[in-house]
Amino acid sequence: MLMKAENAMNEADPARVLASVDEGTPVSVKIRERIAAARKRFHANDNIADFIRPGELEALLDEVTGKMEGVLSSLVIDTENDHNTADTARRVAKMYVNEVFKGRYVHPPAITEFPNAEHLNELMIVGPITVRSACSHHFCPVIGKVWIGVMPNERTNVIGLSKYARIAEWIMNRPQIQEEAVIQLADLIQDKTQPDGLAIVMEASHFCMAWRGVKDMDSKMINSVMRGAFLKDANLRREFLALIPRS
């Protein structure tokens, strides 16, 4: 009798049926569906903050925790009796969602821009900025430094020095490939400041080489992006490269 009453209530209220179905849908599926409906990408180094609703990041954290518990179980680790791994699934989930991959799930930091009132047009270099990321292939740490060179003009927006570090952190806090990370960082700074020239050099150690694989502890990867005046003017490019104090 009670079941009949519930069925009748659900038939009378389709919204309640949809809410019930939605309640049982994993939050990751809901987010994926929104991205698919917008015909957008959700690659490892893409930001998907626009598709996450209030409260869903906490639900995603719970979902990742449950999946990590399954990974530990499949690795035949007795998390129920091993005090060292009892809370590992939650710790790993928090690390991914709230820290090392945070740049995927939150909007960019607020960047206050100021007009170039003094019409500065001399080379400015910011760095080394310490950056931390993880490679998309093995989720191993990528740790290094970034140098940013800006050749402003009278129309260039000026941003605070600390904001370059905040922008770099937001870009790097995702699973990344170093070559793509530097391009994403250049695109964002170019959009924010509109300089005559922009140069970025990144030097990093990749633990997918140091911790596993060939286990080479000393190898580093260095790559650069040169745009505008830095690409066209060899003297300016040489000046920038000569001034960055790499070890």
DSSP helix fraction: 40-55%
Low-confidence runs of at least 5 consecutive residues? 14-21
Q: Count of helices?
A: 11
For the biggest β-sheet, the strand order reads 5-2-3-6-7
Q: Return Rg in Å.
A: 23 Å
- Morphology call: globular
Count of distinct strands:
7
In whole angstroms, how far apart are the ends? 78 Å
Largest sheet: 5 strands, mixed
Strand-residue proportion: 15-25%
Category from helices, strands and their pairing: alpha+beta
Average pLDDT: 89
H/E element sequence: HHHHHHEEEEHEHEHEHH
Describe the structure.
The chain is an alpha+beta fold and 247 residues long. It has a 5-stranded mixed β-sheet with strand order 5-2-3-6-7, sandwiched between helices. A hairpin with a 5-residue loop joins strand 2 and strand 3. Helix 4 crosses helix 5 and helix 7 packs antiparallel against helix 8. The longest helix has 19 residues. It starts with a helix and ends with a helix.
